[in-house]
Amino acid sequence: MSDSIESSIRNKLGNALSPLLLEIADESAEHAGHTGSRPGEQTHFRLKIVSAHFEGLSRVARQRLVYGLLDDEFAKGLHAVTLQTLAPAEASKK
After folding, report:
1. Mind listing the pLDDT tens digit for each residue in 7-22?
2. By the 8 A CB rule, do 22 and 14 touch?
């Protein structure tokens, strides 16, 4: 199970959002001992996603979209994600 959640996140977001950029950082080890942390499991991720699907959506709507896509992963043990969601025009300004 060690890389199945990360692989699933990559596949689902890649297929649904056709991102120009998808960065996934496993931060599970940094949360050892915190609520929702389980030693040896992938439970916490930082995601940076640049996608045209975010055009015209508020920050909250973007987050809801991503969380909805990851419902199965949360059910399988994903505890938390930190999101940076950008439309292409926003990413080019940074």
Report:
1. 999 999 999 999 999 9
2. yes
The tokens describing 21, both together, are 């950029």
Which CATH class name applies to 4-93?
alpha beta
What token pair was written down for 2?
A: 């060690």
Read off the pLDDT of residues 23-75 as tens digits, 9 standing for 90 and up: 999 988 765 555 554 555 578 899 999 999 999 999 999 999 999 999 999 99
pLDDT in tens, 65-76: 999 999 999 998
Taking Cα atoms as reference points, which of 7, 69, 43 lies closest to residue 85? Answer: 69
Rg (C-alpha) for the chain, rounded Å, is 13
Q: Give me the residue spans of the domains in the chain.
A: 4-93
Distance CA 33, CA 84 (A): 25
Tell me how far apart the alpha carbons of residues 24 and 68 are, in angstroms, rounded to a whole number. 17
Q: Which among 22, 21, 85 has a CA at the least distance from the CA of 59? A: 85
